[in-house]
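Bug #77: duplicate submission created two jobs. Keeping one. Sequence:
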Amino acid sequence: MLRIGRVAVAVSLLAVALVATTNGADAREQDVSIGEFTIDEDALCDVRDQWMDQMLASNEPGTWAKMKFTPSDAQLDRLGLPSSEILRAGDYSRPTLVTKDGRYIPVGYDELQDAFAQSLAAQKDGRNGNQRGGKQRGRKQTSDSAGPTVATYAGTGCLGIRPGALLLSVTSNSIGWCSMAHVYGSPGSYDISTAGHCGKTGTTATVIAGLGNRGDATGVILLDFGKFATSKDAGLGNDWALIDIYSQYQNLVTPTMCFWGGPRGTYTATGSLVGVSFPGNSLIPDISLDPNPFLAQTIVHYGHGAAVGTGGTPRVGEAIAWGSTHFMFFGAISPGDSGSGANTLTGDTVGANMEAAGIMTHLYIDPLMRKGLGIMGGTRATAVAGTLANGQIVPYPAPLPGLP
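Kept job's structure:
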């Protein structure tokens, strides 16, 4: 029987390996390897082009539309994921390897703990991320906690619940592909934000730890990690959500944005870089420039949009306007970027950098979209009802141990 409206899937990138525990009197270990979740570049381009055509066909030029991406089963298959029916039918209250043909294989917490610990060690000594892991005889285990800890490989992807992680929301008749924004709260009680149109209040959130293989079974490993606690879907400037993360998976959270680092504080300045008016009903426009130099911001973000790079991709844009609850910028666009967090490269005061700008949610409809460029808008970080958690200011793809 299908489980309707049950998941919002956050996809992060991981390159680790697992080894199964012994099984009965056989006492024989079975290897489980997990590699980085990647998507074929040609598939990404095809899906992006289809999405652009859908957006232009269903929205009037010159209007704002939600950057909502609802892939079909054929598109899910192209992107390397199981069908919506298979995703809805699973129970991910414990780590589970899910195959495209509908097999669900439990993965133990200890295996995850050991694999994550090995990934940290591999990152420190520069070993390649796609390796065989598991429990090593005679080696002391690094963690006795009930849940996994966060880890990643510098340069190969970003594991964990963090800015830039990928979300799929699965309902009874559609699947939404989004990214995650900023972390709110404090260690041990973190929430993470995304676009409100990416999931309704009460939706379960599920993280994909990577692409796993155990014998003849290959697929993604899924784990429920929280629920949408608040969700606002009321247009540009009021489109945001907070996901409440379960206590046993708080160690999977890092506030640091993939690749770029940050955020450190929140960007609060308001105004437009260029103003256009028609005084006295004149047909000749009056163009003015805002003298505030801090409004001219480069926007940096890390999302999982299809067809702009593979997997998660760092991107940049240029700010156009800063409203009280919304912001706008020009840059590369792609399905799946909706809900991702955006930071300013510098900040609204001298010496500030990597401040939280907001959550990407909307796209300005224009034929230029077909070139992969356009104007995007979103909800300011100041409009989210929560206390922003600061990330590391240094742009490491993975946080340093002991730091947020």
